[in-house]
Design a protein that fits this description.
This protein is of the alpha+beta class and 123 residues long. The protein has a single domain (6-118), classed as Nucleotidyltransferase, domain 5 (2-Layer Sandwich). The protein has helices at 6-22, 64-69, 73-90, 108-118, and strands at residues 30-35, 40-46, 51-57, 97-99. Helix 3 packs parallel to helix 4 (108-118).
Length: 123
């Protein structure tokens, strides 16, 4: 079995710290953000049933043309946040708990959260 490095342990601790309270929330699903160097994706997950209620990504075919026109990765994140909020509201999800997945609340992660708030999600 591979021994974890200190950086991996620190990242795991940070990632799980934000999930500790969010997973146990009985009435609100969890909005999870995943960020890579090129793309960003977000999902609204109901942990009690194990369902994904809504999802959006910069790789989605429905927003592909808008992503290509975007000037920066933050603009792409705003598109993903708005799209996710619209899809969540279609599924009658209004209140969520934000899970930044260990990433700092800054830049693209913040852009997704702000765009989702502006589009109607409450958290």
């Amino acid at each position: 079995m591979k021994k974890m490095s200190t950086n991996e342990m620190r990242n795991d601790r940070r990632r799980n710290r934000s999930k500790r309270n969010n997973i146990a929330h009985p009435s609100r699903p969890r909005l999870v953000v995943y960020r890579s160097n090129k793309h960003i994706s977000a999902q609204v997950i109901n942990d009690h049933d194990g369902n994904t209620l809504a999802s959006a990504s910069s790789l989605d075919k429905t927003i592909e043309k808008l992503v290509k026109k975007a000037k920066s990765k933050i603009d792409v994140s705003i598109l993903v946040g708005k799209t996710l909020a619209e899809r969540a509201l279609k599924n009658k999800v209004i209140e969520v708990v934000f899970d930044r997945n260990g990433y700092p609340y800054h830049g693209r992660v913040k852009a997704v959260a702000d765009a989702a708030r502006e589009a109607g999600l409450k958290f």
